[in-house]
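User: Hi! Is it possible to get a structure for several chains at once, not just one? Here's what I have:
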Amino acid sequence: MTGAIQEMIELLARLPGVGRRSATRLVFHLLDASPEYAHRLGTALCQFHNQIERCSECANVSDMNPCPVCSDPHRDPKVICVVENIPDLWAIDAGGTYRGVFHVLHGLLAPLDGVGPDDLNVDLLVHRVEQGDIQEVIVATRPSVEGEATAMLIRQALEEQSVKVTRIASGIPLGSELEYTDSRTLERALQDRKEI
Amino acid sequence: MTGAIQEMIELLARLPGVGRRSATRLVFHLLDASPEYAHRLGTALCQFHNQIERCSECANVSDMNPCPVCSDPHRDPKVICVVENIPDLWAIDAGGTYRGVFHVLHGLLAPLDGVGPDDLNVDLLVHRVEQGDIQEVIVATRPSVEGEATAMLIRQALEEQSVKVTRIASGIPLGSELEYTDSRTLERALQDRKEI
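Assistant: Yes, the chains can be modeled jointly so their relative placement is included. Here is the combined structure:
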């Protein structure tokens, strides 16, 4: 095993979830596959970072600025859903029912990992609320210690604004069995009960 | 999700063992990682097929022709080990005790999958034996129906040559328990018993 093959295995093995063994398998797949595919993937990788922009409004990443969400005239720019990262944005957007815009924090508050308030994209959110005619900020961070702390941070940051700050509901997932739901989720579901 | 990100996910999802979900994860890893890495991997992919040559002696693939094995003066060119594919070549070579050369078939006889004798790199092997002063051909295909059929094919192809054709041993793997060895392997181990 030499030169180019060795180098390719080492480069691929640096991807998350790809060990040396899978990298070797990928290399043999590439050797068997059409050179056009390797070339197309290679070219796309070379251009990738240059093509991707961070939206100056909401910090979504795409090859447009403003991003497709922010530039969609059919969306309600007065409702902002705050998410931890892009996959979370996609997950909510894929549902198709949310028609507001987003704000991507690119992280959650995690002091033990050295992520403080200044490392999150909160200032831009405050700026958006100050400038625009925003009615509601929905904090859609995950229901974990970090997610809750981040939600509190956002509530505090927007304290002096006349905007409604809400938090997505936590509780028992639809279709799941109470019997198999963890006790903290059950506790939360009881706590957050609502009149019907 | 648009344009460049979408395209990258689709390209990566075509790799074996990489679904849409892992492809998405890889894309976010690439976005977070240094642009240099994406660029290096991209460049390597673009050049990959042009750099790789098939050895005109043994059909090993590397960026040299003859390959590093065939051009190694410390190896014995009179002993040829026949393997199914490059990973098998590497596996035997990694052991470090085999000091002969190789011959890569790039497949095994599999009539049901449309792989016939002409699809395997056997003619070149016969040619090597005819031309060179070869003492032994070790058939190291796997002990499966296809591997055994391929071994028989090679024995027949070399029938008129004065070369010794051998087959690697099958039996109980070192360190494993007889209790957990499958019956066919046990049967083979008994059949191929040798005096001690």
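Chain B has a mean pLDDT of 92. Chain B has seven helices and six strands.

User: Great, thank you!
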